């Protein structure tokens, strides 16, 4: 089946400058990795000359030193032994800084200047604010606000004074209860009081002996010739065994 096609394949000739062939060659050149890195390979073969004091080299070294943990702590390791053997605390800069910070945070030292200058203030007596403060003190003063009754100055025979005394006597609790003083200490029997009488009446109402009368206590005489009595006698005689 494919013999004729195989024979024709070897006899087909395509011109090398056709557009399809040229496009395929261009695509092969673009996709070729060897051609892609050919310029870089040739540049590497030529070599390069980079000096030690070049800016990229200096920048890389500085970045490495900054990022290095050893270089970062080198200054601290060198300074650790310098604080040993100080004669006084004032010579140590860190101790002096801590003492300064403590003094700034100390509340007593912070308010020392204010407390010293607080008693050195001199105000004129006729100052407007001082006069206003005195007036306010007089208004809110309890001593000046209240005037007790015994401090009044009035004649004892004035009508308003007599009326006030009469009103005080009427309102006085001692005068109000003075008519009951004669009862103080007098004995009193509860017999005949309202509560006692009420209790007795309630007891009589609840007393079953007084409320009910027993049948055996009633005075009753039976009639001997009553029909029911005669019939009862006849019945008793009839059922008697004797």
Automatic annotation (TrEMBL):
> Sorted alphabetically, which InterPro entries does this protein's record hold?
NEBU/NEBL, Nebulin-like, Nebulin_repeat
* Gene Ontology, cellular component aspect: Z disc
Q: Alphabetically list the UniProt keywords.
A: Actin-binding, Repeat
* One annotated GO molecular function: actin filament binding
Name of a matching Pfam family: Nebulin
> Has keyword Iron-sulfur?
no
Q: What biological-process terms (Gene Ontology) are attached? A: cardiac muscle thin filament assembly
- Domain of life, per UniProt, equals Eukaryota
Question: What is this protein's record name?
Answer: NEBU protein
Please give the organism: Eubucco bourcierii
Gene from which this protein is expressed? Neb_1
């Amino acid at each position: 089946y494919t013999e004729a096609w195989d024979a024709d394949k070897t006899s087909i000739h395509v011109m090398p400058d056709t557009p399809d062939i040229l496009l395929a060659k261009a695509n092969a050149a673009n996709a070729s990795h060897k051609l892609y890195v050919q310029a870089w390979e040739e540049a590497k073969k030529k070599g390069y000359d980079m000096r030690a004091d070049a800016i990229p080299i200096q920048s890389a070294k500085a970045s490495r030193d900054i990022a290095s943990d050893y270089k970062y702590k080198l200054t601290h390791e060198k300074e650790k032994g310098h604080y040993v053997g100080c004669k006084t605390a004032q010579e140590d800069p860190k101790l002096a800084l801590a003492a300064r910070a403590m003094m700034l945070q100390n509340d007593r030292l912070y308010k020392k200047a204010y407390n010293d200058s607080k008693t050195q203030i001199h105000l004129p007596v006729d100052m407007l604010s001082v006069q206003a403060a005195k007036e306010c003190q007089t208004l809110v003063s309890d001593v000046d606000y209240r005037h007790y009754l015994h401090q009044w100055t009035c004649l004892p025979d004035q009508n308003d004074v007599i009326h006030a005394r009469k009103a005080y006597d009427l309102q006085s609790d001692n005068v109000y209860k003075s008519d009951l003083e004669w009862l103080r200490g007098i004995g009193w029997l509860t017999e005949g009081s309202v509560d006692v009488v009420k209790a007795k009446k309630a007891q009589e109402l609840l007393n079953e002996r007084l409320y009910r009368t027993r049948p055996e206590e009633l005075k009753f005489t039976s009639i001997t010739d009553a029909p029911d009595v005669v019939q009862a006698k006849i019945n008793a005689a009839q059922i008697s065994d004797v």
